[in-house]
Amino acid sequence: MSVLDQTAAASPGWPAHAFGSVKTRRTPPNRGGAVIAQTSLDRVDLFRQLVVPAGEDEVVISHISRRLAGHGSTESQARKAGYAVCVHLDELASYDVWSDERHCASPPLAAGTIHISDMRHTWQADIQSSFQVANFYLPQSALDEVAEGQGSRGAGTLHCPIVETRSDSVVTNVAMALLPALMRPEQASKIFLDHAWRALTAHLLKTYGSSDARPQIARGGLSPWQERRAKEMLLADLNGNVTLPDLAQACRLSCSHFSQAFRRTVGCPPHRWLLSQRVERSKELMLNSDQPLSEIALNAGFADQSHFTRVFSRMVKTSPAAWKRAQER
Predict the structure, then answer these.
(1) Any bridge partners for residue 113, and if so which?
(2) Segment 37-65 mean pLDDT
(3) Are residues 253 and 300 in the same domain?
(4) Coiled-coil stretches, from where to where (predicted)?
(5) What contacts 223, CB < 8 A, 6 or more positions away?
(6) Based on the domain organization, do 163 and 178 belong to the same domain?
(7) pLDDT tens across 106-160, in order?
(8) In this structure, is residue 149 part of a structural domain?
(9) Total number of domains in the chain
(10) Helix, strand, or coil here: 304?
C-alpha cells in the first residue's frame, strides 16, 4: 500500500522544543517517550510533538534525539491500552531494555529499524549511545476503529518486538513525511494528519496484526454523489480544517472505507487533492487579481507565503513568482 505521497528529510541541528499540537496544546510537556520509555526534556537535544485527536482519545507523534552518549536510565510511565511504535532514524548502538522488570535482548539497531511495544506492560531502558527516533503512540481505541472500518472484528494485537530488528520502509516513510509537520505544526492540515495516522495504523494491522484482525479485501470507489459531496466540503475550506471523520460521515462511510474509496476514485488521498486545489486557486488569483503573493497564499488556504512557495514549487516545478511572470509574457 502506498501510504503517503509526501516525503521529507530530517533537518539536523534543530533545537530542543515542543510544539503545540493540532489541538493547540501550547504548554510543552515535561516528559516524552524516548525509544520505548520516558525521558525528561532536559536530557535530550530535540523534542517535538503533535497530538492528534482520534475519537475520544489521542494519537501522539514525536521526534526526539540526543547527539551525545550517556542518556542513562529512562523514567517509569503509566500503563496504557495502546502501542508505542518506534522508528530509529539513526543507529542505536548501545542500550538495555526491561519489560515488566525483566531484561530483554537488546541488539544494536540500525537506522530504519522499527519496533512496537505494548504499553499495557511497563518499560524501562538504559540508553548508553546517541539516538534519534520518531515515535507514535496509538491508543487501542484508534486501532479498533481502523480495524472495524476495514471489516475486521477488532484490532487484536500488534507484534514486532525489538529483538527482531525489523526494518519497514512504509513506517519509516510515514515518519519522515511527518517531520515537517512536527517542525511547522501551523502548516499541517488536520486532514493530512488524519490520513497519516490512519494509513500507518492500517499498514501496522496488515503487517504486524494478529491474523483475525487483518483487513479484509478492499471495497470499491465512491459513488458520484459521494465524490461530489466530499469535494464540495474540501473546497469549502481550503485551509484544511475539515477532517476525515467529517468527510466519511457526510458520505455515510467509515473513515477507512472512505479513504480507500476516495483514492480509488480520484487517484490520490484527500489531503493531496486538497493541496492541488489550493495550487489551482492560487493560479486563478495570480492571473485575475493584483493581490501580493502573501495575500494570495492566505486566500488559497496556505499558512503563509513560505508554505505557499514551498508547496507550489514542489507541485508545479517552478516558484509562484516565476510562474506568474511566464503567464504575463
Answers:
(1) 167
(2) 87
(3) no
(4) none
(5) none
(6) yes
(7) 899 999 999 999 998 889 899 999 999 999 999 988 888 888 776 666 667 899 9
(8) yes
(9) 3
(10) coil
Helix axes 190-208, 169-183, angle to 10 degrees: 160
Question: Same structural domain for residues 54 and 199?
Answer: yes
- 315: domain CATH number is 1.10.10.60
Question: Of 226, 246, 268, at which residue does a domain stop?
Answer: 268
Distance (Å, whole) CA 133 – CA 117: 14
Q: Measure the CA–CA gap between 163 and 106, rounded to whole angstroms.
A: 6
| 151-169 confidence digits (pLDDT tens) | 666 667 899 999 999 999 9
Cell numbers that stand for 279 in this block:
495550487
CA 119, 125, 131 angle in degrees (round to 5)? 105
Residues 194/243, Cβ–Cβ less than 8 Å: yes
Q: Judge if 94 and 178 occupy the same domain.
A: yes
Residue 6 has pLDDT above 60, yes or no: no
- Domain residues for the domain of 77 are 31-208
The answer to whether residue 24 is domain-embedded is: no
Residues 86, 88: Cα–Cα separation, whole Å: 6
Q: Is the pLDDT of residue 87 over 70?
A: yes
pLDDT tens digits, one per residue of 232-253 = 999 988 888 888 888 988 998 8
